[in-house]
Amino acid sequence: MLSVATINVSQENSMESVRATMERQTARRTRTDVTQMIESLFSSVKLAKDLSARCKGRALQLTDDEMQNIAQDLENALQNIYDDLGRIPASAFASNAYMDVLIKSQSMRGYSVADIPMNVTGSRPRRSFRDYDTPKLADFLQGMYHESHEYGGQIFNTLPEVAEYIEPVYDAFFCPLTNEIMTDPVTIQSGVTCDRRAIQEYIEKFQDSSEPFCCPVTKMPMQRKTVMSNASLKSVIEEWTMRNEAMRVRIARTALSLSTADTMVLEALHELKLLAKLRGKNRELMHKIGVTKFLARLLDNHSAQIQCDALELLCLLAEDEEGRDIIGKTKAIARTIKLLSSNTSVERHAAISFLLELSKSHLLLENIGSTPGTILILTTMKINNSDDPIASEKAGAVLKNLEKCTKNIKYMAESGYLEPLQSHLMDGSEETQMEMVSFLSELVHEQELTIDITRSTSEILIKMAHSCNPMFRKAAFDVLVQLSLHRPNSKMLVDVGAVPVMIEELFIRKVDDEPVNSMASAATVLANIVESGIDPDTTMVNKEGHVLTSKYSIYNFVHMLKCFMPDDLNLSIIRVLLALTELPKPLATVVSVIRENHRGHAIVELMSSPMEALSLAATRLLITLSPHIGHTIAERLCKTQGHPRKLVKSISHAGRITERQAAMAMLLAKLPYRNTSLNVALVREGAMPAILSAIKEVQNAAARSSRHAVLYMEGLVGALVRLTATLYSPEVLKVAMDHNLALVLTELLSGPAGSDEVQRLAAVGLENLSFLSIKLSQPPPDELLSKKNNILKLLKDSKTHSNKKSSHQQVNVCLVHRGVCSPASTFCLLEAGAVEGLLGCLENDNVRVVEAALGALCTLLDERVDVEKSVAALSELDAARRVLGALRQHRQNVLWQKCFCVVEKLLEHGDDRCVREVTGDRVLPTALVSAFHRGDASTKQAAESILRRLHKMPDYSATYVSMEF
């Protein structure tokens, strides 16, 4: 294989060769006829110019005036020739080839190309882009059509042809072998210039051939295969290439801004994409002349193809830092985000590719992340991998780049993408960890965002909470307080050992220089964990084996309750105790600790806290403890100055019912009814009128709209019923009579705000009142005075007689209680009309309501009253059917016993109709047999008594007489 030698020629010789070649090629392109005429004219002009110069040179031999006149005439002639040439019409030129002649001839004379008049050719001749201003170029492109573009008689099919017309290419630039513009021109022995690559491939064909080596163009034999680099031509080609590409950029930019046709815009974008891929200077020029800014506007175009092409071009322009900076100052990012949600995969892929390129710039990371919707859309694309795997992969890459800006990590967490935040929290520096914890605190605290944390994140937070750095501890506790509200997080925290750390913070750790906030935060975290539903019996609190339900733990919790401690700490401790008391075993432990250490007073005092949440929690804890230490709580309430008054005031209804009001009323309903001290204290503080007023308000429709209205109503009625349990107190009895309590409870049996519990409580209260009816019922007055005495007395004191007559008319003798009765003074159920309401309660599905109603009815069948009259009154109200219906529906022992009591009285004292109704019931025998088999002792005895009356059992009390014969 022959080597190819490269010889550099001098710059001057090469330039001369290039010029000569251009002139020969231009001459070959020149035609005859008009062309020759033009050349002849300009030759004459040249000759005239030379004559003028020689005349001026011999000016010493001629007189001054003559010489000056000749020169002036010659100049005028030349100007006339030039003007005549300028008036030649455009139709005289067949093609642009004549422009070469015109330009060449004018350049000989010394005129520039820009000086050629427009009316010579009908269009602006070819010129360099440096002499072509943008407004003229805009005028040029305004006349372009969709498929082809016409200007000055020329028709162009593509924008590059327009650029070549303005910035022409010479034939000398083309390689004769490839017919393409050369990139590395070299000259061979024959003088022909070719592209280096093409000639080398041609020479290689003759390596092993015996044929003589000939020039591929002239076919002349050559002795040498060496080539010489044509540096000058290469420099000229490179300069022309740069000018041509720059002109193409400007033309495409003008086409974008002026054209309204989609085809023209797409062609311009395609041209710009090709140029942007060629070299960086083209991209710099695009930035400079505003292509980048204009592309941002094209992203709102109606055509999806234009949007995709604009994104592809923007992606190319974003390869350098300057381009990304310029793009960041436009609206391209915000418009690209919109395209991420496109239904077309092509647009989505183009948008995500462009965004991926932008995310490589550190300066744009915050701009991208802060654009509304960016992070949310990207995280959605990443999560939905099955919908679009390509977009999902690129979205993940964009998010990975965005993580370099810490603010974006926060935005990702807000969008539910927590992996970056948690990874930086685990693997970052102390400064980064602190920043991530601050982000977590802000997210879960200010925005109340629910976050599922990983095990690793939980371990890091617990470690930070247990560290000696106050800033780390405070930040970690702030986050743990909020995260522990989410139940899955609470269970995770238990698994990583959070409970022992919180217990140590509460019971053991004491830092003198540190505020108590960490203790309060630890208590809150522990309360959240205990309330999450974990098993406290298995949750260890220290290495000694104690658990949350151990006496060690509960003792410390109870002893931490102090009025001088921060409210939030007391609140969290009470929350822990409330959660523990939901289970039987820890409830017994809590009760035992409070009894042994007399710690109930602290809870009672906290009930009066101005902090509503703490007051409510303390009240709820007292309600839970009242069945076990109710009398202790009641005595503490009475002994604490002002507490009864506060209780009465707290249950008074004013405006919308609050949860605290409902809890206070419920506490009064749950404390032991027969605590006389508390009942008397409540009466003295005006509890009765306050309760009755509140009940009327609740019965109003507006008050019932509160979600706490039912609980509040039940508490108020329970507070009334508690007063009926201590009627032996003169103060309580008096206030019950003054406010006609029997009538109030009767109305509550079927009032508009009555629930099952309200009905049950009202029946219980009526039972308590009815027990006193026999004692309070007065015997009937003596027989009226004789008529004569009455007349004399009437004459003596008519006014007194009138008053006594009126009093006599108001006397109402109760047949059941055998005395004078009234609802207010004796609480008689018959006079108050409560019997019908109680019988109606027997049809309730709630067995407790039925039991309470039967208990109240049984007071009318007591041995101290006239049972026959009572049974007659009950029969008139269809009591037999309703009692048997209750017996048929319910099967509890207590209910059976009370039903059998009523049935037995009906059989014993009822009339024939009543007896037939009872004995004719088909369910009664079955219920009696069932009660006799499975009932307790009292129920079995009641069933046996009725069976005996029905002759279903032998009567062992009968006396048999023995007859001897």
From TrEMBL:
Catalytic activity, EC: 2.3.2.27
A GO term, aspect molecular function: ubiquitin protein ligase activity
Biological classification of the source: Eukaryota, Viridiplantae, Streptophyta, Embryophyta, Tracheophyta
Pathway assignment: Protein modification; protein ubiquitination
Record carries keyword Metal-binding: no
One Pfam family of this chain: U-box
Record-annotated U-box domain positions: 168-247
Organism: Urochloa decumbens
Top-level class of the enzyme under EC nomenclature: transferase
Signal peptide (UniProt feature, chain positions): none
Keywords carried by this UniProt record: Transferase
Protein name as it appears in the record: RING-type E3 ubiquitin transferase
UniProt-listed Gene3D superfamilies: Leucine-rich Repeat Variant, Zinc/RING finger domain, C3HC4 (zinc finger)
Family matches, as SUPFAM superfamilies: ARM repeat (SSF48371), RING/U-box (SSF57850)
InterPro entries in UniProt: ARM-like, ARM-type_fold, Armadillo, U-box_domain_protein, Ubox_domain, Znf_RING/FYVE/PHD
Entry keyword annotation includes Transferase: yes
Gene Ontology BP, a term: protein ubiquitination
Catalytic activity: S-ubiquitinyl-[E2 ubiquitin-conjugating enzyme]-L-cysteine + [acceptor protein]-L-lysine = [E2 ubiquitin-conjugating enzyme]-L-cysteine + N(6)-ubiquitinyl-[acceptor protein]-L-lysine
